[in-house]
Structure formats: structure tokens, C-alpha cells
Design a protein that fits this description.
The complex is a heterodimer of chains A (618) and B (233).
Chain A lengths: L5 H6 L23 E7 L3 H4 L3 H12 L3 E7 L3 H9 L18 E5 L6 H11 L14 E5 L15 E3 L3 H17 L5 H9 L5 E2 L4 E5 L5 E6 L8 E2 L27 E4 L1 E2 L10 H4 L4 E2 L2 H15 L3 E5 L9 H11 L6 E3 L7 H9 L8 E6 L3 H6 L6 H13 L4 E8 L6 H22 L5 E8 L16 H13 L6 E5 L2 H11 L6 H9 L13 H10 L5 H4 L14 E2 L4 H12 L17 H5 L6 H5 L1
Parallel strand pairs in A: 1-2, 1-3, 3-4, 4-5, 9-19, 10-13, 13-14, 15-16, 16-17, 17-18
Antiparallel strand pairs in A: 5-6, 7-8, 11-12
Chain B lengths: L7 E9 L8 H14 L16 E3 L7 E12 L5 H10 L7 E7 L12 E9 L4 H13 L4 E5 L4 E5 L4 E10 L2 E9 L8 H11 L10 E9 L2 E2 L5
Parallel strand pairs in B: 3-10
Antiparallel strand pairs in B: 1-3, 1-4, 2-3, 5-9, 5-10, 6-7, 8-9, 10-11
Classes of the chains: A alpha/beta (618), B alpha+beta (233).
Bound molecules: iron/sulfur cluster.
The site of iron/sulfur cluster (SF4) has 12 residues of chain A, from helix 21.
Chain lengths: 618, 233
Amino acid sequence: MVHLTSDILQSVVKPARYTGSEWNAVHKELDGITCRFALSMPDVYEVGMSNLGLKILYEILNNRHDTWAERVYAPWIDMEEHMRNKNIPLFSLESFTEMKEFDFIGFSLQFEMCFTTVLNMLDLSGVSIWAKDRKEDDPFIIGGGPCVYNVEPVADFFDLFVIGEAEEALQELVDVFASWKKEGRPDGRIGFLKRAAQVHGIYVPCLYTPEYSKTGMYTGIKPVDDKTPAVIYKRIIQNMDDVETMEKPIVPYIDIVHNRIMLELFRGCSRGCRFCQAGVAYRPVRERSEKKLRELARKMIDSTGYDEISLTSLSSADYSCLGGLVDNLMCDFSNEKVGFTLPSLRIDSFSIDLADKMQQIRKSGLTFAPEAGTQRMRDVINKGVTEEDLLAATGAAFKKGWKTVKLYFMIGLPTETDEDVIGIAKLAKKVVDHYKEVTGRRGVKVTISVSCFVPKAFTAFQWFGQNTLEEFARKQQLIKEHITDRSIHYNYHDAHVSLLEGVLARGDRRLAPVIYSAWKNGSRFDGWTDQFDLERWNKAFEENNIDPNYYNHRSRDFDEVFPWEHTTPGVSRAFLKHEYEKAVAEQLTKDCRRGDCTGCGICQTLGVNIVDWGRNRA
Amino acid sequence: MPEKAAAFTYRGEVTKEAALRFISHLDYSALIERAICRAKLPVAYSEGFNPHMKLSFASALALGVTSDCEYMEFILSKDLCQPEVFERLSAQLPDGVTLKALKKVEGKHKALMSLADEARYIISFSAEGQEKEWAQAVQAFNNAEVCIYQRVTPKKTREIDIKQYVIGQLEIKTENNMIELTAALKITPQGSVKPAEIVEYISKTHGLNNNISDVDIRRTELLAGGGNLMDAH
Ligand code: SF4
């Protein structure tokens, strides 16, 4: 058991990050536990504790009598220093057990910039960084989360991955582990991994060998034998009402990023924005019933004492009977101090009315994502939003008294012209003017936040060569020059980070040594602006003689084989290619949620279907 | 407070044990609030745009210190009997908080925050072979009229006489290579001294072992006019 002395805890920022014992944290007797599972996020406590997927898995695993799931997050720099100086290994927050004692350490991989933090956590745990170096009694390192749709750059650091939704797959994996252990661990580590590879949705990277052409192009990946599946399709929960889920989330003692109940209305979003990986990865849409949602809300409020529920989903306003659900929830909790919030607002007045009814705190302002500045560009990305929609929505908000609006945009999209870029500044100006028209006053604040587009695997834009640093910088300037109104606040991001994301997002296994070197050079918490240091990465590419431009700036041929295609959400390549062509032709594709199937292939490939109560009623 | 709504004040004695000693006072207050919510007690809220629960504490506890005796007051809109409130709230308190006593406060009384005027502590740490030196240093501290301590906060550094807040003598016991100090400290509207500051002052001024890595500080009593806060008015 790890003991942190009081001088250490006194000297670090937010010591409660490391002391556990929160309400609803699960403590078990070790007697009768077959599987000890550490659930982790390669980020600080406040971020890790806010992740919905980890919360769900924590409860599901702990519902098993043979398993004890505990939590571990990345110690912040100040704590890491103490741990390294005093040889304190990374430990779990429930029993303060060091990581090496666990059977599994599971990492939720939310974005590419967390990779070096994973390595750092493995190192702090005293576990070999490279999977091939791990010893018989080392924990199995398992990854999950959105990054699994191109996991090759970190494949060599992991023993296995869960592709897709893990509620059922992880349980099956624990069953396999339990019987392997009971049988006396036949064939050791590799014996278990081979069995694990037979579980649907489990990818065991050491059982596959990537192949490259003479010119260094990736040509495919080979499983070691014909028992090992050549393609791993994502796991998916068909019935969101029946699946075991979170009912007693842990209540932290310190404030965290999302310090409220997350009520997951549905999974999936098929609006079909062509840049969006989540829009493909989580298809098809599957809603929970209102009855189930009200039941879950009641259970979670009772078990936590929280006073706020966030109606969580990729686009919550698309829930088929959201108005009714909100009315009923507000009625259920009318005698308690419980508030409701919508994390994402659709660009229409329905969303504004709802936000108004829910009395969302006005000071925080409203956030919309038009994503692009001109109609042409929005058609290219299939963002089915017009300027009229935006003005109608902001106008409704202004009438109701909102004074601050935040608008999200991207630059560096396919076919983008300077006119499209300048359109961002122009659109912001129109919103400012609209405020004056609607209210007859001045004093609005419009913030535009502009990010640099990163093409992602399994999207229509996966073939597209990312903009260069110079292009991004020029476009960022161009917007600045065209902002004429002092009511407009302009934020843009460091393009270097987006370019690096661009490398990792479409990388292959040859990037593993680069990630390793970057970590060796001191990288961790790369997603934190104040911790990110480009030099460490530049050096890492040099040391390994790898040209990053090959991965991010290169436009791919339509017949190129991609290193991510064997861990797939089940989308058809032909569909994505067709979507790219339609993008260039500025043609829209409709949402299949309540209309016709538009042929992405996921439902047919995985044998699932849409669950949408509006559609089913119609 | 507007008198129209019925209001019944309950005062409780709760602990803050080792598991929670690095939770700030504000976060400790929030965890009690959540427990009251889970217990479904008909608790009163302040009026206004951003209502908050009517819950107050006698005295903030320094980070890292455990306590046998924190005092809190909350107001219910219904006249519930003591055992019911006690049981419902106890059942919802996390590990590290125990409700030791609870009573309904009748009649007029001062705000709980202004009642406490004395806190007692036990401070223990490893002697690391310096038992004798510590005994002498404590003796010197007890004999001194004034002890000027440099209080460093993120904003500024100030010199204060900490001796003025010490009631009677510091007592020292050594056993099994452990040192145990007992201190009674004044809480005044103008300020007070933290037990950790006394330890730091003594060890610094006498060049004693400065890396006392694991100090345990426990508040054993919080008093008003020498009496228990549960009974103070
Ligand atoms: S297969 Fe058809 S219905 Fe299913 S998600 Fe794809 S486009 Fe929609």
C-alpha cells in the first residue's frame, strides 16, 4: 500500500486529487476477487473523473463479484516530482495499491495528445513501456475510447484494445481472463492474449504484422494465423434501455470539469458532418426511452445528492421528444433543487426556448458551432445550417436577454478559399449587427473561436492533405484583418498542436518510436497548452528519421490502403469516398435518423438498427 | 432572514477524519450539503437568483488537520424530531465524517461562526532522535513572552506574535520515538495561529529536524467560554 506523507500532500496543488475515499467509490475485500482492474485516464483527476465512459465501466465492473475496478489518473507535475524523488509508484485511489499489482490497466484514449502521458504513467507504474518487454506477471495494458479508430501509432505500447462500446466486451474479456487464470494461466501471457483476440471487438496488436512496400508505403496488416480475425469491428450496444449502466456515480470532493450528473440520452449522431469522426464512429443513433431516462435521473440524484443534471449526447437537442422529456424531468424534481443543462445547442430557436426554460445560467453565454463562414463551405462539410438559422437562433437568444455568444469555426477545410475564411469574420459581424436590430441596443459580445482542421480516419476527409503551418497562419491573419467590430473577440489555436495531431491521427506503427522519444525528451500533458513543447517532438522526429509531412500534409490516393482500416466502426469505404466527392460538388447528404438510409453500411455490417422514438412513432 | 417561512435550526457535532484531511473547508462544507440532499431533509435555502443552502460552520479547519469536533448548523423548514434527522443524515455521510451529536437549537442564539473562542489540538510526529532537543525547545517557547513568526501567504509576508494566541503551556510527551504536543489556542476576531505554524516556529528557531515529513494534527476540542459549543448561545 502506498502512503503519501503529509508534507507531500501539503505541498502539492489540490491534494484531494490523490486521497480518494469519495462518496460512491467502491471498496472491496480482496478475498474472492479474481480480477483487479485499474481504470485510467491519462490526464489529471478533474478531467479523468469527468469521463462518462469510465464512470459507466467502473460501475459495471464493480457489479461483478469477482472483479474490483479502481481508479488512477495522471499525477500533476508537482506530484510526479515527489513520486520520482521518493520512488513512490503510481497507485490506485481506492486501495492505494501500486499499479503493478493489477491484472489490467485500462486507459481511455480521448485524443492523440494524451499518448505521451500514457507512457509516463506506465513508467511511473514500473511497467515496461513496450508491450513486448512485459513480463509474465505484469498487468495487461488495455486501451479504449475514440482513438481506437486509428490506434496504430500506439499499438506497440498496448497489449490489447477494445474497439467500440465496451459495456459487454469488457465483461466477456474478464470472463476469459478468469477462466485462463483458473486453469493455471496456460501458455502464459500470450496464451491469454490469444484467447482475448477471440472476443468480438478485442484487438491484440502483437498478433498482427504491418507490411510496407519498397517505397515505404503501408500495404496492409497480417494476422499471425487464420484464427485471428483480419478485421475487428466495433462493439455496439443495440438496446440502450437494457444495458447495464451508471446509477451511482462517484461524487468528488473537489470541483471537476463536469461536476454534475451526466444523463446520456442517446448514442450516435447521423447528421453527417463530413469532418466529424464521432459522427461515423457512434452510428447508428440509439435513444434511451423517456421512462428509462427518468428512472436513471431519479436513481442518480438519490445516490449522489447532486443538484444538476446534464442531458448528455453528441447533439442532445436531436433527442426525439426532448421538450416532453425536459417537462417531465422538471416536474419529477419540482420539489428538489435540481437544475438541468444542455451541453450542446442546436442552431435553432427550439433550442433557445428550451435553454431558456431550463434557465441555463446566462452569464456563461451560448455556444453554437456553424463550423464554417460561408454557405458554400458549410455545404461542403454537410453542416446543414444556414445563415438564416444562425440569425434566427441568436436573435431568439438576444430577445430572451442573452448578451454573449460564442461561435466555433474551423479553417483548413477541403476546397476552402479566402472568401470562405473571410466569411467567418463577416458572419460574426452579422451576428453583432443582428443584436442591434433585435434589441435596439449595443453591448453584445461575440467570441469566435477558430480551430485548425485535422483530417481524421474513417471520415469523408480521410484522404485530404492537411494545410501547412504557413497556410494556417495566413488564414488566421486574414480573419484578424477582417474583423472590424470591437464587439468581436477572436480566439485561435496554436497550429503546431493541430499539425502534430494531424500526424498522429493518420499515423502508423512507425510513429511509436517517435512518441517514445518525445516522452523521453520530456513530453507529457501535451494537451495542456502550458506543458506542450514543440521542440521535444521536433527532436523526436529527427532522432527517428521520420518525416511528419508524410502523415499530415500528403493527399492520399483513393486506392491507398490505410493503416487504420482493420479496427473499424463498420463504415463502408465506398460511402466515405462518395461523401468526399459530394463534398467537392457541394452536395448535401440527409440525416438517416428519421429519413432514408444513406448507405454508410454500419447497420448492415454490424446487424444493428436505429432506435429513435420519433421515427418509430411516425 | 425573512420570518414568514417556518425555520428550525439544528446544530451538529461532526468529525473530519484522516481520509478527508486534505479536503478544503469549502469542499468539506459542500460534501455535507450533498449528504443533506441525499438524506432528503427539508433544508432551507437563501432567497435570490443563486440560492444556497443555509448551512454554516463554527470555524474553518486548516488543510491537513483532522478534527474530532466540527460544529455546523443548518435550518429545516419542517420540525423533524432529532432521532429522525440524526439517522437520516448519518446514513448519508461519507467515510471520514461521523455525526456525533445533534440537537435542535431553541430560542435566540448568536451565529455559530462567532461563538468559538478556543481550539485544542494534539500534534504528533516522529522524534527522529531529537526528544531532548524538542523538550528544551518547547520549554523555551513556554517561557518566552513574545514569539515573532513570519507568516507567508501568496499575497504577502507578515510578522506576527503567535505567543499571544497560546493559552497556558504547550505540553510535550515523548513515547516510542514519537513526540506529542498538546496546545490550547485562542480564536479571536483579529485572528489566531495555526498549530502547524507553532511547530514550524519551534523547529526553525531551534534548528531542529526540519523535515518532519509526517505530522499529524488533530483538533480535539472547540470551545466557547470554556464550554462545549453544542450548548453555547
Ligand atoms: S447504415 Fe444507413 S441507417 Fe444505418 S447509420 Fe448508416 S446511413 Fe444511417
